Amino acid sequence: MLYGDNATHFYTSWTTDNFWKTGCFNVRCPGFIQIDKRKIYLGGRVSNISVYGGPIFEIPITLTLDPMTKSWWLSSGQTSIGYFPAALFKNFESASVVGWGGRTRTDVGNTSPEMGSGYFPDRKMTHSCYFRSALIEDESRKIFPPKPDQTSSFSDVTKCYGVIYYGDQGGYLGAVLLFGGPGRVCGD
C-alpha cells in the first residue's frame, strides 16, 4: 500500500510511458513541485468523505497549462498546490487526451477494494464518485465541456468498476462523469 492504510488520500502521479520506466506518485521522486504544504499537501488524507445517499463533499480541482512557462499547474479552488515543470515531459505544450477517474490498488491475489461508495455509476450523483463541471481548454484558451463524441470510457476490470460520461447536464452540474464500483475478486 502506498500510504499504509485504507483511507482516501489526495494524490497525483505522472509518467511519460504508462509507468513502465518513468513515473512517480506525489513528490516521492523529482517531478511535481509542491508549493503549498500548509493547506493542501499531496498524500494527505481526505477527511470529509461522502456517504452513499447521504452528505456529499466535493474538492474543486483544476490542472492548467501556464502559457508562458508551459508548466502544468494543479490547484484546488483558489489554492495553487504546485506544478509539473515543462521539462518533465517532452513536447507537452498541449494535451491531445485528458482523463478523469479513479484508481485502486491491491497486491495480486488479494480482494480489490471498493472505489468510491462501492456502487456502480447509475446517473445519481449521490450513489457513486463523480466529477462535475469537467472542462477542457483548447489552444485559443476557450473553455468547454467535452462533447460525448469526443470521449471514451475505460475500465480495466468492468465486473468490478464502471465509468459513464453523461455529457453536459447544464447549470451547476455542467459536464458529469460518474465512476466507481464494488471491487471484490477482480482477477490479476
Automatic annotation (TrEMBL):
<protein>
    <recommendedName>
        <fullName>Neprosin PEP catalytic domain-containing protein</fullName>
    </recommendedName>
</protein>
<feature type="domain" description="Neprosin PEP catalytic">
    <location>
        <begin position="1"/>
        <end position="187"/>
    </location>
</feature>
<dbReference type="InterPro" id="IPR004314">
    <property type="entry name" value="Neprosin"/>
</dbReference>
<dbReference type="InterPro" id="IPR053168">
    <property type="entry name" value="Glutamic_endopeptidase"/>
</dbReference>
<dbReference type="Pfam" id="PF03080">
    <property type="entry name" value="Neprosin"/>
</dbReference>
